[in-house]
Amino acid sequence: MIVIEKLDDYNEELLEQMRLEIERYINDNFAKSLNLTRLDCLYFPNDFDKAILDFQIAHGLEERGYTNNEMGTAFGKTMQLMVDGDEKDRIFIRKEILIALFLGDDEGKQLSLNLIHHELCHVHENHDLASMTGFQKEMEEDNEGLNHVLNLHAMNIFSEYVVPKMAVTTKAIQKIVNVDFLIEIIEYTKNNMDNQIQKFEDGEIEILAVFGSVQLTGGHLMKVLATLIGELEGLNKNFSEVEEQIDLFMDQYYIGEIWSELKNALRTLDSTYPNWDSLNVLEPLKEVILKMWNCLRVYPTRDEINILI
After folding, report:
1. What would the pLDDT profile of 176-207 be if each residue is shown by its tens digit?
2. Separation between Cα atoms, residue 102 and residue 252, nearest integer Å
3. pLDDT band at 144, cuts 50/70/90?
4. Global confidence as pTM
5. At what angle do helices 256-272 and 240-250 cross, to 10 degrees?
6. How far is CA 280 from the centre of its chain?
7. Which residues, including other chains, have CB under 8 Å from residue 51's CB and lie 6 or more apart?
8. For the residues of 6-26, what is the DSSP string, one character each?
9. How would DSSP label each residue in 247-270?
């Protein structure tokens, strides 16, 4: 179901035409390859920020808000709810995406279509995850300590691999590898963590703040890399020459080994997905996450957090 709130400057007849066209496009192009049985609705609120917060409060979710920091700003978000005893997914999309999809230039239309496709792929992913009952039971029981933190990060990183791998078919191929962006985020991550550690040395922040920073910035970099791996694989083309060039590029930076090990870990996970039966499948990816944090001079253990000064 597509829900479009009344939007300023756009009459209801036009909005209804948009709603019907999106519904038709989803049915014709996505519904056959994606399992969307969990989809409650695709919702375009007039006020995205308020709609997200109202939903989170109404459904008693611990999370508040959405990604809106130095790492970027979310234009879409998928959240879970119970409907008549069944778990469903509601997709929230900014109204600007809707307008760009129908009234924007060609680039804006493609970016908007890919964002909607991406969120629908999260619905398919949630269906797959829910089907792995043994794995999910272990995830629910694992709720404290460093191992729990690593499991959550591993799931987020795998999500940003498998979903873009599915959604890449609606993305402009020239947008997949952005060298300038990669350089920027690789350097930003290192510089940000060096600054945070300097603040810790100077007594300005506590060690837990440093650990929080490495999770945020290091985790974001790993999700960017996971997305790149997933999108290249999702093209279903021989990209060995491109991958070799990217390997050489990554080797220039502190993440050369991490890049290689991340590819292997994600591909190993994907080879048995969605048939995981134990949290143990996440161990290789968790090792790569720890290695990333170590490269950024943070060394958490089960009992303490150490920093390389």
Report:
1. 999 999 999 999 999 999 999 999 999 999 99
2. 42
3. confident
4. 0.93
5. 140
6. 22
7. 43, 45, 92
8. --TTS-HHHHHHHHHHHHHHH
9. HHHHTTSTTHHHHHHHHHHHHHHH
